[in-house]
């Protein structure tokens, strides 16, 4: 087996019955979407996968619906330490990032102020013409969580 | 007028038939009475003479009858369609259906006639708000019903439209007898279902890409509720009973313009989202197909 590989396990309250796991393997990430029993399976595999309890990170906060938009304000905490705030904006009628990006940017600039430059997230760049699925949201959260982990103290984004 | 003459001829034919009958019965009556007292001495000869005379009258009357009958037009057998089976109806209270059927047929005939008059009058009216196809007045004369079109013809029209768009997939199903229900997949943007009655559109429902299509439940997204509303307006706008094929084609062209529903900003205010409704431009102009917000379209 040799090299150690990292498995991220994520839960999303929007899909409460699913467990998302992402295996980092070099340049490519592999994801598995399973039901709640996956957590128990990972516990059984504790011989092979050791859990790093101290890096548990969570974004928690209210969820708003505004027209067809779903806005989630999450305060990010890692081991009870406040790290920052994540805002998730979802426009649910459309499934293609490419088609809806202009509209989303307009909404975000209305929310954050017109001077804030808004770029599509790294993960979505390559998937602008694909159909959006829940795992794409998970990848974006993971992207931000990894960035939070790297910095100590507060992070501005 | 033609019918009135027929009735007159028929009446005279019936009268002459009656005369023939009465003269024949007179012959038999005389025969059965036999010799009477008033025939006198050589009653036999007188009796035969009388009989001869009566027979002459009969043959004359018969000639008259033949003449009038020859003058009558040969009746064409009526094609009663399914109503012929009404005569085989056994239940008492349904046997009266035929008269009702004839009455309702007369009514629809009248409605058809009046509506074609109304159409001519309305198409001359210059104060019209929605444009009625004025070109149709030329090809009128025989109005055909577009509610009752062969399924094959409907299929042809819809398949032709399907072939002319690459990013719009149209499939036909017939869950309700012969009337087509058409489901439309427009790129990854939206799905729509259109119910047809013959070649006329009766109902439209628009939903999001990920939703399941059916005729009656609304989309859960506000934007598609709005688009459905506008599609109903468009359906009524393009409605044209005289040129149904054009109506369907125009509607489909209009619906196809929604391919940029999320990506194109409103032509008037230049924004994607309207500041109060938070909806993208969900209205398409009927002629130019340009995107507008509902609030901006005036």
From TrEMBL, chain A:
GO MF entry, a single one: transcription coactivator activity
Keywords: Activator, Nucleus, Transcription, Transcription regulation
InterPro entries: Mediator_Med20
GO biological process: regulation of transcription by RNA polymerase II
Taxonomy, superkingdom: Eukaryota
One GO cellular component term: mediator complex
Known function: Component of the Mediator complex, a coactivator involved in the regulated transcription of nearly all RNA polymerase II-dependent genes. Mediator functions as a bridge to convey information from gene-specific regulatory proteins to the basal RNA polymerase II transcription machinery. Mediator is recruited to promoters by direct interactions with regulatory proteins and serves as a scaffold for the assembly of a functional preinitiation complex with RNA polymerase II and the general transcription factors.
Similarity comment: Belongs to the Mediator complex subunit 20 family.
Subunit record text: Component of the Mediator complex.
Protein name: Mediator of RNA polymerase II transcription subunit 20
Organism: Papilio machaon
TrEMBL record, chain B:
Keywords: Nucleus, Transcription, Transcription regulation
Primary residence: nucleus
Gene Ontology CC, one term: mediator complex
Record InterPro entries: Mediator_Med27 (IPR021627)
GO molecular function: transcription coactivator activity
GO process annotations (BP): regulation of transcription by RNA polymerase II
Origin: domain of life: Eukaryota
Protein location: Nucleus
Protein's UniProt keywords contain Lipid metabolism: no
PANTHER family: 34 KDA TRANSCRIPTIONAL CO-ACTIVATOR-RELATED, MEDIATOR OF RNA POLYMERASE II TRANSCRIPTION SUBUNIT 27
Family the UniProt entry places it in: Belongs to the Mediator complex subunit 27 family.
Full protein name: Mediator of RNA polymerase II transcription subunit 27
């Amino acid at each position: 087996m040799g090299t150690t590989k990292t498995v991220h396990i994520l839960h999303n309250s929007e899909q409460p019955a699913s467990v998302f796991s992402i295996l980092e393997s070099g340049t490519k990430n592999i994801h598995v979407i399973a039901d709640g029993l996956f957590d128990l399976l990972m516990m059984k595999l504790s011989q092979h996968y050791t859990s790093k309890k101290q890096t548990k990170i969570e974004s928690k906060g209210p969820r708003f619906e505004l027209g067809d938009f779903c806005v989630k304000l999450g305060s990010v905490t890692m081991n009870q330490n406040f790290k920052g705030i994540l805002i998730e904006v979802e426009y649910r009628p459309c499934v293609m990032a490419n088609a809806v990006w202009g509209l989303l940017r307009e909404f975000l600039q209305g929310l954050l102020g017109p001077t804030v430059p808004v770029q599509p997230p790294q993960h979505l760049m390559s998937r602008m013409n694909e159909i959006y699925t829940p795992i794409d949201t998970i990848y974006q959260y993971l992207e931000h969580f990894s960035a939070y982990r790297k910095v100590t103290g507060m992070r501005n984004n | 007028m033609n019918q009135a003459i027929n009735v007159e001829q028929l009446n005279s034919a019936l009268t002459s038939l009656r005369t023939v009958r009465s003269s024949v019965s007179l012959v038999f009556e005389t025969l059965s009475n036999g010799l009477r007292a008033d025939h006198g001495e050589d009653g036999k000869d007188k009796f035969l003479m009388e009989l001869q005379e009566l027979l002459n009258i009969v043959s004359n009357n018969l000639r008259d009858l033949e003449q009038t009958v020859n003058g009558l037009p040969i009746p064409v057998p009526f094609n009663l369609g399914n109503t012929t089976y009404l005569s085989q109806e056994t239940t008492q209270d349904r046997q009266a259906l035929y008269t009702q059927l004839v009455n309702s047929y007369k009514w629809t005939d009248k409605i058809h006639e009046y509506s074609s008059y109304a159409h001519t009058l309305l198409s001359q009216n210059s104060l019209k708000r929605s444009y009625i196809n004025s070109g149709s007045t030329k090809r009128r004369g025989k109005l055909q019903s577009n509610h009752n079109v062969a399924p094959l013809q409907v299929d042809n029209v819809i398949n032709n439209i399907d072939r002319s768009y690459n990013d719009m997939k149209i499939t036909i199903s017939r869950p309700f007898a012969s009337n087509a229900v058409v489901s439309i997949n427009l790129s990854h943007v939206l799905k729509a279902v259109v119910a047809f009655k013959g070649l006329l559109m009766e109902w439209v429902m628009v939903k999001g890409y990920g939703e399941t299509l059916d005729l009656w439940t609304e989309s859960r997204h506000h934007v598609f509720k709005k688009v459905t509303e506008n599609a109903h307006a468009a359906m009524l706008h393009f409605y044209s009973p005289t040129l149904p094929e054009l109506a369907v084609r125009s509607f489909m062209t209009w619906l196809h313009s929604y391919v940029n529903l999320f990506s194109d900003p409103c032509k008037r205010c230049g924004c994607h989202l309207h500041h109060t409704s938070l909806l993208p431009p969900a209205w398409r102009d009927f002629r130019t197909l340009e995107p507008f917000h509902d609030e901006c379209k005036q």
